[in-house]
Specification:
The chain is α+β, with helices and mostly antiparallel strands and 296 residues long. The chain has 8 helices and 15 strands. The strands form 2 sheets. Strands 5, 6, 7, 8, 9, 10, 11, 12, 13, 14 and 15 form an 11-stranded antiparallel β-sheet that branches.
Length: 296
């Protein structure tokens, strides 16, 4: 493996934590003997083009510095290739890093761990989800939670994560369960009223909400969590349990497993790794061993 690696940085991740995290991570990698080239890009499209160019050019690894959005962008460049992927978690949610068992608050330690993994070729092949050619690492969300995202993204104030709390309250007041058609592995079809449907390659989203607590990055299957028709009062009772993953024991919640899932519902946007995919219908496939990750 070449000693030249690419540091893929989002300077705005976590209100500037991305830029601050890049320095100690790069220092740790250089101290381990690697030559580090930093790539940022003028915008998302330019950054992705530069990352893909680095991968195509034979970089020894693509190391993303940022949150779940930056990890998602990096996956678009590295998934399906033999180029190793590293992640220095420096965002707000960091759910993909948590699923991988990576440090989330120590960029220097993350840099040292990536260097050791690359030198020792400790690379684990993990599964990814894919929708119409777009890769994701954690959860494809739809329903109530995606409507909260829609509303929050339209709001200019308040700023930061608090606007999504405000959006949740507003959406809760107006929300009604939606008719879904869910097709698993091209066979079993569920037609149901659902509050939300989450397709988990990894277990959590939203900064530790374990919506699909049993999901594994190495089994070739999604865990699909369906929160059925329930009242606002029931949803408010279930919601706090999501942080522990115990909501799956509630009678209105069901969990299914499949390598391919088709979601159909009117007026619903799908979000994966917190990024919009577009309106349903969407078909997600779990792709085994889609990316090689530098791990502890």
């Amino acid at each position: 493996m070449t000693s030249e690696i690419t540091l893929f940085v989002n300077p705005t991740a976590g209100r500037g934590r991305g830029a601050r995290a890049a320095l100690p991570a790069a220092s740790a990698l250089r101290a381990a003997g690697f030559s580090v080239e930093t790539v940022q890009g003028e915008d998302t499209a330019d950054a992705l083009a530069r990352a893909r160019e680095a991968v195509a050019g034979g970089t020894g690894a693509l190391v993303a510095v940022g949150g779940d959005g930056m990890a998602n962008l990096a996956l678009q460049a590295v998934a399906g290739t033999r180029t190793p992927f590293g992640l220095v978690a420096a965002g707000t949610g960091n759910d993909f890093a948590r699923a991988l068992g990576l440090p989330v608050s120590d960029p220097a330690a993350a840099g040292r761990m990536i260097a050791e993994a690359l030198k020792g070729e400790r690379l684990r092949e993990v599964d990814l989800g894919r929708v119409n050619g777009t890769w994701f690492g954690t959860v494809l969300a739809s329903g109530f939670d995606s409507r909260v995202n829609d509303r929050g993204n339209r709001m200019r104030l308040p700023v930061g994560r608090f606007k999504y709390d405000v959006a949740m309250v507003a959406e809760l007041a107006a929300f009604r369960p939606l008719p879904y058609r869910i097709t698993l592995d091209g066979g079993e079809t569920l037609e149901t009223e659902a509050t939300l449907v989450a397709v988990g390659n990894g277990p959590s989203y939203g900064g530790g909400m374990k919506i699909c607590p049993g999901a594994s990055l190495g089994d070739g299957l999604f865990d699909i969590t369906v929160v059925g028709d329930c009242s606002r009062a029931t949803l408010l009772k279930i919601f706090p349990r999501v942080y522990r993953g115990t909501h799956v024991g509630h009678p209105v919640v069901s969990v299914h497993r499949a390598s391919r899932v088709e979601l159909l519902a009117e007026g619903v946007t799908g979000y994966a790794d917190g990024e919009p995919l577009g309106p349903l219908p969407l078909t997600a496939e779990c792709i085994r061993a889609a990316v090689r990750v530098a791990l502890p």
